[in-house]
Amino acid sequence: MNRLRAVPRAHLAAGLCLVALLLYPVVNPWQPYPQAVMLLGFLLAIQASSWNIIAGYAGYISLGHSMFLGLGSYTAGILALRWGVNPLWVAPIGGVTAVVAAVLIGSVVLRTRGHAFVIITIAMLLAAQILAINSKSLTQGSDGITLDLPFWDRDFQNIPFYYLFLVLLVLTVLFSAWLRSTKFGTGLVAIREDEGKAASIGVNTTRFKIVAYGASAFFIGTAGGVYAYYLTFINPVGSFAILGSVTIVLAALAGGRGTLYGPVLGAFIVNLVSEAATVYGGGSQSRVLLFGFALVLVVLFLPRGILPTVEAWWRRRHPVDVEYTDQAGALARAPVTTRERAPAPAATGPEGAAEGEILLDVRGVSKRFGGLTAVDDARLTVRRGTITALIGPNGSGKTTLFNLISGGMAADSGEIWFGGRRIDAMRPWERAHLGLGRTYQVTRLFKEMTVQENVVAPLPDSRPRTMFAGGVHGHEAARARELLDIVGLGRLAGERAGALSYGQQKLVELAQVLMLEPKLILLDEPAGGVNPSLLGRLTEVIRELNDDGVTFLIVEHNIPLVLDLCDPVVVFSHGTPIAEGPPGRIREDPLVLDAYLGDDWRPAAGDGGPRTQGAATREAVQ
Ligand code: ADP
Ligand code: MG
To answer: What is the pTM of this model?
Structure first.
């Protein structure tokens, strides 16, 4: 709630700054020097704000982002010379060139996770420089390209550039704000926080990262075209300088990576410091030193950046009470409803499968970790419409089997079929799009996101319409609120997910997976660590969803709960099922009693039931 209230305040401050910046040259038209300092600040802010899309939102640090400025400059410069037009007209083509380059590079590099990307971005920047030096016929090599001077009066030379860069900056910030407000933006943050989990909720991580990288290049490339005209000279060393990239990173980190205005604020500050260093400190050598030093200081003392630090300080000073309660019934509980736009997961699916048909078929799947066989030639079927339990001792391979089914891990051998299709070679998000959802034994919510954003994040399909649907307002957000109401946590929608209790997090993760409209939900120890009052709600929700046509496969150690809720029950031991049947039969099966349930569940003489139910409730140990 605090966040929601803080947002308009930030927009208001930004609007006031914008008005002041718009008026500045009007009030003070005869001073080209401060105008030049400020327009360079806008240019840096355009770059930092764009960089923020891939590095701040998605968490993929690019150390070669000034390459796109150089590409834009060269594209506009070369086209202006060849076509005899003003570079400003072709500046947007510079933006397009930058996007094409980003998508091509990204398509190769962003298929992997992690650090390879950082290294490649530096390599690409240097490669671009070498290319510019050696493609003499195109770029005139080291001599560089000289452009005509601006056609307007020299007395006002900087003013048109001032406004051009300011307009580009406003467009960049608006674009960035819009991206962040869509499901695409939520998906990017999901990738930053937990890429594996993002994939399991239907985020096509590869595509998201490539699109984000492309999107982060456009305004820099366009600004590059304008910058070429401002300088009237471009050369390889100046256009593809590593210092330019470092400045972008420094600006965004100082202001607040991942926030909307942080990179802009950081850019203004870094630009002023840089200017001061050049004027008073004696040129670019001292600037390199200064930037290095500043970067160390920022990382050490302001790891989250100025804006988030100030925001956190403000929030501590002005706390907002949120009604936390774990009491069942104290929070509003909405009845389970299925979404209108997607076909309800009814008893008869699109494949014509009726209730009772096999929905999930695990055929002889194995997974080894070194010498340990965690899943050993496992065969398991889950029928449509059932709540199937998977029980067994800790370490028997239940979670590993879930990972193989959801695609978090690849099986060594065997086949997995879901809804009549073989899925074991599919990417996790493809499986999610087919209607396969899962929760985790240790919840994997995106802790820095709000509860509502967590629930908005999943993507039930890969259509661009779904990808760019609004995530903050509109039907997706409304649906998320609805799902939170279903699990009884609607009031916590605006809270940071990491601030919730363990049991609440489990319920939010359930609401999150429901956003996929799944046909089958794999629940990994949903009751583990959940307080008893929330437990009642959990079983209620599972029952209602099941009545609505959702199939469940549940790993759980709470045996009374399993026997009450599930049918059939599959018992796992040493990576393979050893028994399967209705709960009544399973709890008397001598094999199961020996392998898992133990003596507490052995029927006493003359008594059909277990001696003590409570004692048999096993603690979930990871
Ligand atoms: P369960 O969920 O039934 O308690 P798990 O599937 O978590 O069991 O684990 C089965 C076995 O596989 C355990 O011995 C565990 O230590 C091992 N294991 C699970 N995941 C990994 C992994 N990523 N790397 C190595 N060993 C693992
Ligand atoms: Mg487990």
So the answer is: 0.88
